[in-house]
Amino acid sequence: MEIDDERPPASPAESLRLIEQERAAAERGLAAHPMAFFGPWGTAWLVGFGLLFLRFGPDGRVFVPMPPWLPLLGLFALLIAAAAVSGYVAGRAYRHIHGQSATQGRMYGLAWFLAFLGMGTTLPRFADHLPEAEAGLLWGSVAVGLTGALHLAGSAIWRDRWLFALGAWLILINILGTAAGPGWHSLVISVAGGGTMLLLGTALWLHGWRR
Amino acid sequence: MSDELPELDPVIHAQARLRVVAALSALAEGDRLTFPRLQEILRMTAGNLSVHLRKLEDAGYVEITKTFSGRNPTTLVCLTRRGRLAFDEYTAAVRKLLEPPDVH
């Protein structure tokens, strides 16, 4: 587009229109698509915790017979895939921005990694002493609580109200699900956690993903 | 009443440079954007964008730095504090012009 660049905008209204147009284009061009994050994570939680519920239901019920390792492996694989996709997308989207935001993003990504590394290496010490159902609940509740807390921290970094709401919501449903007990926790996290992420991602997408 | 019309900064009051400054104003403070990405966002040719960036740099509104990312030279662009202020003032002035005049 070769416009007559030196020409002033035709009117103050035209100036304002140009400003808004280019700011919106820049914001869209600089941020990653919301579904790139909420899509894989929401799917991983919805399907992964859903499988757990179907195999390890409340009071030891088995709704769908499958080998016990299958839902765990499924959840684990989906979570790794989600982490890989969102890491790749974030890296691509923010590759063109240097400076403070890049440092913040790197530290935040590392915070997730270290938090879950700590969880993965400390929980087995306790899980080994618990009945199978309680051990599963321990893993699930600590992982969801940690995710909620990290979303809350992220919301403070980017002053993102939606991320704050999501973090607070995850912590709330984690408390309720844990109180309800093994089996129920998986169902609550699958539907109210994974489902909410997919809905939130879709809503932000449809509304032009402004913060 | 001193209802003088605000003067519009001639550096920014040109279509191309207004678009450049507006796009750069969407960056968080302390961030720099690569030249090719800015070009993509603005849908301008490299030559055209360079010309306007140089004028904005001469006015002290943008800072252009060259660095290496790996082995590739990269040009980074950002608004200076002065540029951000000039853009804010321009926006305020334009909004003022759009306000309905006082009727006495």
List keywords for this structure.
heterodimer; A: 211 residues; mainly alpha; 7 helices; 1% strand; elongated; B: 104 residues; alpha+beta; Arc Repressor Mutant, subunit A; three-stranded antiparallel beta sheet; 19% strand
Report on the structure:
The complex is a heterodimer of chains A (211) and B (104). Chain A has 211 residues and is an all-alpha fold. Chain A has one domain (31-206). Chain A is 78% helix and 1% strand. Chain A is elongated, with a radius of gyration of 21 Å. Chain B is α+β, with helices and mostly antiparallel strands and 104 residues long. Chain B has one domain: Winged helix-like DNA-binding domain superfamily/Winged helix DNA-binding domain (Arc Repressor Mutant, subunit A, Orthogonal Bundle), CATH 1.10.10.10. Helix content of chain B is 47%, strand content 19%. Chain B has four helices and three strands; from the N terminus they run H-E-H-H-E-E-H. Chain B has a three-stranded antiparallel β-sheet with strand order 1-3-2. The interface between A and B is large, with 31 and 41 residues. Strand 1 (97-99) of chain A pairs antiparallel with strand 1 of chain B.
